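quick one: adenosine-5'-diphosphate bound model?
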Amino acid sequence: MSKTVLAINPGSTSTKIALFQGQTCVFEDSIDHPATVLQKYPKVIDQLEARSRLLKQVLADHQVSLVELEGVVGRGGLLHPMAAGTYEVNQAMKADLIAEVSGSHASNLGAFMAEEIAELAGVSAYIVDPVVVDELQEVARFSGNQLFERRSIFHALNQKAVARKVATQLNRHYEELRLIVAHLGGGISIGAHLNGRVVDVNNALDGEGPFSPERSGSLPMADFLAYSLNQQEKGRVGLMKELVGRGGLVSYLGTNDLREVEAQMAQGDQRAKAVFQAMVYQVAKCIGEQAVVLKGQIDGIVLTGGLAFSQQFVEELGTYIRWLGPLFIEPGEDEMNALNQGAQSVLKGEETAKTYFGKGDPHVKKL
Ligand SMILES: Nc1ncnc2c1ncn2[C@@H]1O[C@H](COP(=O)(O)OP(=O)(O)O)[C@@H](O)[C@H]1O
Ligand SMILES: CCCC(=O)OP(=O)(O)O
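yep, here:
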C-alpha cells in the first residue's frame, strides 16, 4: 500500500520540500536561503535551527498534518563512505555529521531535519543514496601518491535516479547497463555506471574534474600549493572556498548563473564565450575519461542538472561526445522522487533499511 512520505532536500542555496502519497507528489515547495543570510553561520550545522523553523512554516502553510506522515526522508550528507541504499537515521550518523568526518556541505543537514519532523510525527527518519556512496573499483582508488586515496563524493542520488529513468526508457535494467551520467549543476560530477555501480566518478567537492558554475575542479597542483602558502591567513575554510563556491564561472565571470553568461555571450562578450567553451571542453574531456573506464562499450550518456537546460551547452558538448554513444538529456534533477522512492520501498517492506555503522562499511572496499 502506498505510504505518506515527507522528503526534505537541503541544498547549498535552498531547501526543497515535497509531500508524497505513494508515487504521487501532493506538493513541492522550495525555501531560498540567500548567501547573505547563510554567511552569518560559521558552520553548516549552525544553519539547522533556522532551516528547520522555515521548514515547519512551509508544512503549516500547506496544512500538513504530522499524524498522516508514515516516514520522513532527508538528503544524505558527508558521512564515511557507504553502500547505496536507504538508511535509518541513527546516533552514529548524527555524530559523524556533527564531526564533519568527510567535510562540510548542506546535505549534512538532511538527516537532522528529517529526524526532527519524524520525531514529532512518531515515525522513522531515513536518508537515501547519500553523497558519499562509494562503489569505486579498486583501480580507481589510487590517487598517485600513497598518502592520499581518491574519494567518491558525488551527486549519487540524482545520478542513480536518472540512470534508472533511462534504463526504463531503454526497457532494460539499470543493473545490466553501461552508462555515463554527467550531473551538470552548480557542482559537476561525471560517473561511469557499470552494471548498477558507479565504478569511477570525479570527486565533485574536493577539486577533481571539470570546473563548474561555482567550483574550480582540478587545478595545477603546485601552483595551488604555492598560492595556499602565500594565503595562509585564509585558513582551510577560506582556501576551500576558492575551490568550492568561488571557483569556476564565479571566478572567471563573477556569476554562477549560466543564463547570465549566455546573455553576456549574446551581447558579443568574447571573454564569456571563451569561458563557456572552456567549461564545455572540460566536461567533454571528463566524459571521455569515463568512456575509457567503460572501455568504449556505452549504452548511453546521460546529461542532467541545471546546465542541461541550456540548448547551447548541450549542443556544443554534443560536438565532442556524440560519437561515444546515444545521448539522453534529463535536465534538472529527480532527487525528490528518488528520496521518496527509497523511503517507500522500505516502508512497504520491499527493502530493509540499512544501518550506518560509521567508518569501515564492509561493502566498501578500500585500498
Ligand atoms: N534554462 C537554463 N539555461 C541555462 N542554464 C540554466 C538553466 N536553468 C538552470 N541553469 C543553470 O544551471 C546551474 C544550476 O544548476 P542546478 O542543477 O540547479 O544546480 P544546484 O542544484 O547544484 O544548485 C546554474 O548555473 C544555472 O544558471
Ligand atoms: C558532490 C556532493 C554534492 C554536491 O556537490 O551537491 P551540490 O552540487 O548540490 O552542492
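The pocket of adenosine-5'-diphosphate (ligand 1) is lined by residues 11, 185-187, 213, 256-259, 305-307, 309-310, 333 (CB under 6 Å).
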